[in-house]
């Protein structure tokens, strides 16, 4: 993905042409757009100031006008917990490209933008623990996230509410704007914004005002693929680094365009996220989805009997102990000592199990010895 969204998506059914200074009128307040936070396939996300006495900063996610994100607010309402992004407002916005679902939430610092910096093992473990609790709470509410990966995890930044809004704006990067000027004036259309804005670097701001000594508090966002257990998501998304084997099998071998995604796929993703939080890199780095099955079998050692006929090279000999042994040093860099590393590998091998019915529940994961010490903080 580039640093700004794909311009061709500013069309009917696509992105809303937001620019800095726009005011959006919600149900509980109005919001003045002051900067860009990010963008995805289904939305642009903006830093906005509430236009009330609080002048609080919020994140405003303006979805594409294809209706695919219409259920995000509904799922979020069902799961509100301290480990999911806080829903502050939800409303519809009519514009030149159609009707967009808008949700307003608290501002989070994307965790991926922080992982490369020096972070203590305890910091990493606390993030992992928050995610386990998040998935437990989601499943208790009957909701499956359906697209869990570290790109959808952020750290809260309560300091943002305490700082003077003018100081915050001064401390954030200045706006990097690219003018949108069609070569042929006849192609000018209200579907396009006057300019596109590069997202601000919230991680740098966070590093400056919070530092890495703070105890982090992680939350999950992007509920665009969330659905009630037993139903289907409106859109299929699967991040290669956290996609469950049953989903890969259905997609690649059975050619199912919209495979069912259940709670156990969230648990697989949890294992993949914990690996990445500690080691700093994804468990199946730089692989395409079609290569995943072979690597998953090497990691686990064998393929469940019910899948053997459909799994590529299912009967090749494999040594899962050697697979984990090769990654031990890498994982140890994010752990406190040898025991901590061994406990982590035990937890990962218990969680990243091919057969979905044999994976532990998030509650069981939260009681794992690797989390001892962190559990007592809660
Ligand atoms: N609450 C938030 N606080 C800060 N930044 C956010 C917040 N929500 C989203 N973002 C930023 O905007 C980006 C896009 O958001 P999101 O993932 O919700 O959109 P999407 O279109 O549903 O994405 P995808 O293509 O992954 O489905 C995120 O990667 C993140 O950088």
Automatic annotation (TrEMBL):
Q: Is Isomerase found in the keyword set?
A: no
Annotated ATP binding lies at: 61
Q: Does the keyword ATP-binding apply?
A: yes
Task: Indicate the segments forming the Protein kinase domain, all copies.
Answer: 31-371
Query: Where is the stretch described as Disordered?
Result: 356-378
UniProt feature, compositional bias: Basic and acidic residues: 356-367
- The protein's superkingdom reads Eukaryota
Extract the PROSITE patterns matched here: PROTEIN_KINASE_ATP, PROTEIN_KINASE_DOM
Keywords for the protein's UniProt record, in alphabetical order: ATP-binding, Nucleotide-binding
Name used for this protein in its record: Protein kinase domain-containing protein
Provide the taxonomic classification: Eukaryota, Fungi, Dikarya, Basidiomycota, Agaricomycotina
């Amino acid at each position: 993905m580039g640093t700004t969204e794909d311009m061709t998506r500013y069309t009917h059914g696509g992105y809303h042409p937001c620019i800095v200074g726009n005011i959006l009128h919600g149900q509980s307040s109005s919001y003045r757009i002051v900067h860009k936070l990010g963008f995805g396939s289904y939305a642009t996300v903006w830093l906005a100031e509430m236009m009330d006495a609080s002048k609080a900063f919020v994140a405003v996610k303006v979805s594409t006008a294809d209706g695919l994100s219409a259920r995000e607010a509904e799922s979020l309402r069902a799961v509100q917990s301290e480990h999911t992004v806080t829903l502050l407002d939800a409303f519809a916005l009519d514009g030149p490209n159609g009707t967009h679902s808008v949700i307003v939430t608290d501002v989070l610092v994307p965790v991926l933008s922080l992982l490369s910096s020096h972070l203590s093992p305890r910091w990493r473990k606390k993030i992992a623990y928050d995610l386990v609790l998040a998935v437990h709470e989601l499943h208790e509410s009957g909701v499956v996230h359906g697209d869990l990966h570290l790109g959808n995890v952020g750290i809260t930044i309560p300091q943002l509410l305490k700082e003077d809004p003018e100081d915050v704006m001064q401390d954030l990067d200045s706006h990097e704007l690219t003018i949108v000027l069609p070569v042929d004036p006849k192609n000018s259309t209200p579907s396009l914004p006057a300019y596109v804005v590069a997202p601000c670097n919230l991680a740098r701001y966070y590093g400056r005002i919070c530092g890495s000594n703070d105890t982090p508090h992680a939350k999950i966002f992007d509920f665009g693929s969330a659905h009630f257990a037993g139903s289907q998501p409106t859109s299929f998304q699967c991040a290669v680094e956290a996609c469950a084997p049953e989903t890969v099998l259905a997609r690649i071998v059975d050619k199912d365009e919209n495979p069912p995604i259940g709670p156990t796929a969230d648990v697989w993703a949890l294992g993949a996220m914990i690996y990445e939080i500690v080691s700093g890199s994804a468990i199946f780095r730089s692989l395409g989805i079609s290569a995943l099955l072979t690597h998953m079998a090497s990691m686990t050692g064998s393929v469940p009997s019910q899948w053997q006929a459909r799994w590529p090279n299912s009967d090749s000999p494999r040594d899962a102990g050697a697979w984990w042994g090769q990654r031990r040093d890498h994982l140890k860099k994010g752990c406190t000592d040898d025991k901590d590393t061994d406990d982590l590998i035990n937890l990962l091998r218990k969680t990243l199990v091919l057969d979905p019915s044999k994976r532990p529940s998030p509650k069981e994961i939260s009681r794992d010895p690797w989390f001892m010490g962190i559990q007592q903080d809660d």
